[in-house]
Specification:
The chain is α/β, with parallel strands linked by helices. It has 2 domains: 202 residues, D-Maltodextrin-Binding Protein, domain 2; 201 residues, Periplasmic binding protein-like II (D-Maltodextrin-Binding Protein, domain 2, 3-Layer(aba) Sandwich). It has 19 helices and 9 strands. Strands 1, 2, 3, 4, 5, 6, 7, 8 and 9 form a 9-stranded mixed beta sheet that branches. The protein starts with 8 loop residues before the first helix and ends in a 5-residue tail after the last helix. This is Family 1 extracellular solute-binding protein. InterPro entries: Bact_solute-bd_prot1, Bind_CPR0540, SBP.
Length: 440
């Protein structure tokens, strides 16, 4: 599972500042001493072998570093326990957008190390600077620069195309035409329903964080996405707001009836299997789903992927990327920054490519990816526009978690315990509250 409540404010505030604001420089890397670098990483869809290889490769480039790797599918739990005791890792690989919201809490508490100087570092083992290798769009955005200025606090890692995945073999068998507009999309829903096939499913509600911004863009363009991520409730109102929620209403009404019961960390693959088994047509996901589901995918089945349908002019697809960061209270910041810089090396890219993890660098060896994976990165070559971004950070608001309000509550709309109008009105209310608490 590629993508996944937030700590109490008091807990986070105490934890973040329990060690004080001044790092003991005597604990920084000493020239002739071997330095232990504590690296905590989320173990996601790329498996548990990629990071040990990266660690080994880095230690070969920097023999004075000894990396202590902790990786886990529940890394937030391990980190929470250590942070409460005042123990911080030096480097963390954990993306925003997860249900636990750990990375967001560090952003809200302004407890991240500034990484501007990482861009000016020469990549270990190479001669180019990090800034000369990382694709600009993945640096200059509201995720990596969360405070609305030019200061960088998170580095991009593992770039993934997302879109609507479908069973290409099923489409060929049934004579279905891949839709390009919302009207065609819902006309196809009627044809599929007549054959006992649902239009839509999703792995878990968190996967809709790539779908919803793209749907908003299909109605409003980039301006609407920017308003969405800045908690501007105007996008949920007026004539265009009506159109947006009309699309969502029809979509949720045509979502497979088994989706909600399996939309959790234990059973989400059952929803992904619906596409493989030809029981549902589309699922929002990233290219990693192909490898994740390979054991239950027949050799005769071919995957397809498309951008979201257009309303009038353009089609959009969200580009998801994960992040790596350094806590402000990290013990060995200099070595931590050196390690982060190494992640953008050609050597690291070769290792990442073995596990189909794509780094957003201009020297990435795309030719080493499986051909079926390479196809998914051609999405934008076919005219789709890319969306990159995330919600701006806000001060903690008691009882309000944005992921729950925007995405998790969609389960309630799909299973008909909440109406689309209730969902819409709640978003307007909660966005108006959060907009007043944006961290400037």
């Amino acid at each position: 599972m590629k993508k996944f409540k937030v700590f109490a404010t008091l807990l986070m505030s105490l934890a973040v500042f329990s060690c004080g604001s001044n790092t003991d420089t005597s604990k920084e890397a000493v020239k002739d001493e071997k330095v232990e670098l504590k690296f905590s990483a989320f173990e996601g869809g790329y498996g548990d072998k990629v990071w040990p290889e990266i660690v080994k490769a880095y230690e070969e480039v920097n023999p004075k570093a000894s990396v202590i790797l902790t990786q886990s599918k529940t890394i937030e739990d391990e980190l929470t326990s250590k942070i409460k005791g005042g123990q911080y890792p030096d480097v963390v690989m954990l993306a925003t957008g997860r249900k636990a919201g750990l990375t967001e809490n560090f952003i809200k508490e302004q407890a991240l190390e500034n990484l501007n100087d990482v861009l000016n570092r020469v990549v270990p083992g190479e001669q180019k600077k990090v800034s000369e290798k990382v694709e600009e769009g993945f640096i200059n955005n509201g995720v990596t620069k969360p405070y609305g200025n030019d200061d960088l606090y998170l580095m991009p890692i593992f770039y993934s195309t997302t879109g609507l995945f479908y069973n290409k073999t099923l489409f060929e068998k049934e004579g279905f035409t891949v839709p390009t507009t919302w009207d065609e999309f819902f006309m196809l829903a009627k044809k599929a329903k007549a054959k006992g096939i649902s239009l839509f499913t999703y792995a878990t509600p968190s996967y809709l964080d790539s779908f919803l911004p793209s749907a908003i863009a299909s109605v409003y363009g980039y301006e609407g996405v920017n308003k969405f991520y800045n908690f501007d409730s105007s996008i949920f109102k007026g004539e265009k707001g009506d159109k947006l929620f009309s699309i969502l209403k029809d979509l949720f009404a045509n979502t497979d009836k088994t989706t909600v019961s399996n939309a959790n960390a234990q059973n989400y693959r059952k929803n992904q299997q619906l596409i493989i088994d030809g029981k549902s047509l589309f699922i929002p996901n990233g290219f990693w789903v192909v490898d994740e589901m390979k054991d239950t995918t027949p050799d005769t089945m071919k995957w397809g992927m498309m951008a979201l349908p257009k309303l009038d002019k353009d089609r959009y697809a969200y580009s998801f990327f994960e992040q790596v960061w350094i806590p402000a209270n990290a013990e060995n910041k200099e070595v931590a920054k050196d390690f982060v810089a190494f992640l953008y090396s050609d050597k690291a890219a070769e290792i990442f490519a073995k596990y189909k993890a794509v780094q957003p660098i201009n020297s990435y060896p795309y030719d080493k990816l499986p051909k079926d994976t390479q196809l998914f990165f051609e999405l934008y070559k076919n005219g789709a526009k890319s969306i990159v971004g995330g919600f701006v950070p806000t001060e903690p608001v008691e009882g309000l978690t944005i992921q729950d309000e925007v995405y998790s509550s969609i389960d309630s709309v799909v299973n008909k315990t909440k109406s689309i109008d209730e969902y819409r009105n709640n978003l307007i209310k909660k966005f108006d509250i959060l907009r007043k608490h944006i961290i400037k």
